Amino acid sequence: MSETMSGGCACGKVRYTASVASDDAYLCHCRMCQRASGNVSLAMIGIEQAAVEWAGQPAWYRSSAIAERPFCARCGASLGFRYTDGTTKKDLTVASFDDPSRFTPTSHFGAESIHEAWLDTSTLKRIRSDEYRPLVDRWAKSGDKPPE
User: Fold this and answer.
1) Which of 37, 79, 87, 114 could join 42 in a cystine, given CB atoms 3.0 to 4.6 angstroms apart?
2) Contact in structure between 49 and 90 (CB atoms under 8 Å)
3) Domain boundaries, the chain
4) What are residue 111's phi and psi, to 5 degrees?
5) Alpha helix (H) residue ranges in the chain
6) Of 89, 114, 97, 107, whose CA–CA distance to 33 is shortest?
7) What is the pLDDT of residues 93-127, one digit of tens each?
8) Cβ(22)–Cβ(45) under 8 Å?
9) Which long-range contacts (CB under 8 A, 24 or more apart) does 59-67 make?
10) For the whole model, what pTM was predicted?
């Protein structure tokens, strides 16, 4: 069953609504996604291009000869990926959804570039942001509050 979900960038300039039919997401480890996100992987969901409506158009970066990526030109947030020819699909970044908790990773893509040490981090020490005094103090001093 499809559900209309919303999302967007960090600063709010680029927003979207998407008719999402599946909870299935994946982690892309390909070098293009690693470089585009500045991270070891990028959590994505596949969706029909027609199922996404943009409010505030994203900028598009031609990341290779075969693909381009939407992003916010103001804050730089990565919003997705699409091939430039022959498809009706695109991917949206899971973290750009207002509530990404619906999605579950079901596969890894670009497995040739997986950084194994980053896959199972369950034994690492966990520190909550609201318990880290230097961060809490900085937010208090700014007069603002952390993003939710």
Assistant:
1) 37
2) yes
3) 3-142
4) -60, -20
5) 31-37, 133-142
6) 114
7) 999 999 999 999 999 999 999 999 999 999 999 99
8) yes
9) 61/36, 63/32, 63/36, 64/32, 67/32
10) 0.90
